[in-house]
Structure to design on (288 residues):
């Protein structure tokens, strides 16, 4: 049976992460993880953007602060709703350690900071991957009856599946990358600012200890920080109606300097962030 949960306010990050941490602890004699995604929707109606919060987000990502919301900003509004679904005990996997694999944003027009927003989020399409389980979190933002922003966020939970253990593709040789449009420096202080603005305090981003506990040698930058920060290279040239598709590659370990590439093509832009020494991609994206 479908369940619809209507919220009166954005869930608090602290409570969500406490629930995520508790959900990672096994309960003696109880195993109620579902083999499928629960048919559950969370919605928040009439939400008003806090200009101070928007300013903090822009400060953390380097994007311009103004009346129009940056293309990626609604992600941080929908993220707590997605977390409220993923931290439930009957979700197929625990939230702690899940990583962002891909992101697709479709915007029909610019959104003003003064417009009341109706936000709705659900999770679907659980499937196996050689590295674990994938799910899609679907979020929609409406102004009245008008759908103005839609997103598909794909999360990966690393674990063994029936697809695990197969032949691995040959690693691509390192290559000297071409000269970048610019370089982008990111450190722990910047990521702490982004975590405060986004509410995403996954331990893999917050400290060396938290990252090592989840299998990373160092803390890593949020995928959606990089997806936002790279848009600064083409700010002012993003059309109101646009589709932004992002794939995340190797993580950006903190601190790092990465190369920024933005190539204008028919219908939009091809974007990427690459390692300045070995040339492998941290992020590849298309904006059309």
């Amino acid at each position: 049976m479908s369940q619809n949960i209507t919220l009166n306010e954005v869930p608090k990050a602290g409570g969500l992460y406490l629930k995520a941490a508790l959900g990672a602890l096994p309960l003696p004699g109880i195993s109620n993880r579902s083999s499928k995604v629960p048919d559950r929707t969370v919605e928040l109606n009439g939400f008003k953007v806090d200009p101070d919060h928007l300013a903090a987000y822009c400060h953390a990502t380097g994007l311009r602060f103004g009346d129009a919301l940056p293309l990626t900003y609604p992600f941080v509004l929908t993220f707590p709703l997605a977390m409220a679904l993923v931290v439930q005990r009957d979700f197929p996997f625990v939230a702690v350690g899940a990583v962002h694999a891909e992101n697709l944003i479709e915007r029909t027009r610019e959104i003003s900071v003064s417009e009341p927003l109706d936000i709705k989020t659900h999770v679907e399409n659980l499937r196996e991957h050689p590295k674990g389980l994938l799910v899609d979190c679907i979020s929609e933002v409406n102004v009245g009856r008008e759908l103005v922003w839609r997103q598909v966020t794909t999360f990966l939970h690393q674990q063994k599946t029936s697809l695990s253990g197969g032949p691995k593709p040959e690693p691509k040789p390192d290559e000297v990358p071409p000269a970048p449009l610019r370089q982008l420096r990111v450190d722990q202080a910047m990521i702490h600012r982004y975590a405060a603005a986004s509410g995403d305090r996954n331990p893999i981003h917050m400290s060396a200890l938290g990252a090592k506990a989840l299998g990373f040698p160092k803390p890593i930058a949020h995928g959606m920080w990089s997806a936002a920060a790279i848009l600064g290279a083409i700010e002012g040239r993003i059309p109101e109606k646009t589709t932004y598709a992002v794939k995340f590659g190797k993580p950006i370990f903190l601190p790092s300097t990465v190369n920024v590439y933005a190539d204008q093509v028919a219908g939009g832009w091809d974007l990427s962030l690459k390692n300045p020494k070995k040339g492998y991609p941290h992020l590849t994206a298309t904006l059309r």
Notes: Residues 74-86 form the longest helix (13 residues). The chain has one domain: 3-161+179-287. The chain has a mean pLDDT of 91. Residues 156 and 265 are 30 Å apart (CA to CA).
